[in-house]
């Protein structure tokens, strides 16, 4: 992707997050990047295309980055720790995209929603494959649910208190690791009747 296209997408995501998709015009996006609204049509088919490319590019980036993190047998939790760190960086650097993903999903065309969802499901599977050897107590469905819950924690950045990027990154990664890698405490079985009675 060219730097100019990336600049347009990043600026548009900020505007969509601040005002909503329907509250932003092509003219608004053009003015924010220093061109006329019509000049944007050299790069994108329209406002919906810009929104779709924002979310497609984000899901592509996350999936491609995750697939690079192959497990190392010498460091059993290495891939998961790296996935957590990479996602935390993405969430801290792109809070507007997280807001847009949550709020403007329905503004995208059906074909793009299908593509984005396909990439998201593949991303979940990469995480699940990294988690399951470390948590044999979890079945596949439970592991996926745990991974998606961890995403909720990591993607809280648009709503998080601002404590500085480094401190927030450390907090998010520690919490996500604890949530995913700490098995729940065993339940005490209910007391049965006293056989001595």
Number of discrete helical segments? 8
Return the string of H and E elements.
HHHHHHHH
The CATH architecture term of the domain at 47-181 is Orthogonal Bundle
- CATH H-level superfamily of the domain at 47-181: Tetracycline Repressor, domain 2
Number of E strands: 0
- Helix-residue proportion: 55-70%
Say what the CATH topology of the domain at 47-181 is.
Tetracycline Repressor, domain 2
Structural class: mainly alpha
Q: What is the name of the CATH class of the domain at 47-181?
A: Mainly Alpha
What is Rg? 21 Å
Descriptive account of the structure:
The structure is a single chain. This protein is mainly alpha-helical and 197 residues long. The protein has a domain at 47-181: Orthogonal Bundle (Tetracycline Repressor, domain 2). It is 63% helix and 0% strand. The protein has 8 helices and no strands. It has helices at 3-19, 26-33, 47-67, 78-93, 95-103, 110-131, 140-154, 165-181. α1 (3-19) crosses α3 (47-67). The termini are far apart. The relative contact order is 0.11.
Index terms:
about 200 residues, mainly alpha, Tetracycline Repressor, domain 2, 8 helices, elongated, disordered C terminus
List the helices and strands and how they pair.
Layout (H helix, E strand, L loop, with lengths): L2 H17 L6 H8 L13 H21 L10 H16 L1 H9 L6 H22 L8 H15 L10 H17 L16
Helix pairs in contact: 1-2, 1-3, 1-5, 3-6, 4-8, 6-7, 7-8
Can you give me a brief rundown of this structure?
With 197 residues, the chain is mostly helical.
